[in-house]
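Supplementary Note 3. Input sequence used for the single-chain structure prediction.
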Amino acid sequence: MIGRSEIERYLKSYMSRIDTLVSQLSEPTARMLPDRFVAHQEIRAYRGRHRVLGIEFRGVSPATRLDVSNWTQPLDTAILPSTDIPASGRPVLFLKPLRKQNPNQAWLPKLLLVGDPRAVSLLDIAGDARFTDFNVAQTQGRYALQDLYFRRHFRNGNTASKFVRYFEAIPAKRWALAQETAIGNADFDLQEQLRIASGLQRPTKEYVKVGDAIVQGREKGVMVLGNDAGEQRQQILRIRDELAVLGYEPVLAREEPEPAFASLEEKVKALLHLARFAVMEDSTPGGQIAEFDYCKNDRHILIVLRRSGEHSTWMIDDAHLVDIPYIRRFEYDESNLDVTLKDATDWAESFLQRRSAAYEKHFPWRVPPRT
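The predicted structure, written as discrete structure tokens, is reproduced below.
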């Protein structure tokens, strides 16, 4: 079996090459690229059956983090939400083997399935169908998914969903993980992404004035709070991705730059003031108990998400009952997080509308002039 050190060397060479290439691009061009081309990433690697390796880029991290796990199930179950449907159905997509153009080719050919960055690209998995088994044992190439939203259906009628930022399956063979292969793959991937981006107008963050930053953040920004240590981190990332699918721009404090002169408390409070509202996962104890007070004391609209039957502490369990109308609790389970978040954000938007109407009525200078 391919060892962790070999996987780490491959990814280190790949990311180092990507970082070097991106640093040579102009700033406007670099901003057009997805965040997997940022220097530091959170990456999960799955050593699958039949000598297959799955690599998933989860998003930006203060420092590159790699988690390697042995995966005994079909590799597609590593990216598709778990359901009670047995993994015996026919794949909805058949991938043909990819081959090198010549034996000396350093990079691996790739089949990329990419969603439109200007809209949500949904792949619905119904019945007992599977996406694919990523059986790349006999191939000399890669299969990759980017910016695709998957939804699978439970037999009881519920659904589970996941937004895949980038996932690829490659042969778990030493020649495929060599340093020269990593460098060649990085060269190919960046040029491929630049070709895709050349025909699209991706939104960029260009804040010139403080007022502009506030307005833009309030239009789409949503602060995501909660315990992001260990396995709970994956739930925070899933909430982030579900919010992105709903059209918001989710913000995680750890993914934002660290002002040298500001404390962590100042940083989080500043981001909250820039956000439209906040979503806090509160199933397990963590630092969010302090963030809860920030929201309560500064009148930030707050959605509190908890897995059914779980909560962090009784100390913050009663604010939403009577006293604080801009805080509301929503319970979810693994099969209905997407639906629960849609209901929760609908409530937040409704509260924002009521707040806006009340402020316009109360403050004379906010009333539109009569004509």
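The radius of gyration is 22 Å. Helices lie at 4-23, 27-31, 179-198, 210-220, 232-245, 264-274, 288-298, 337-362.
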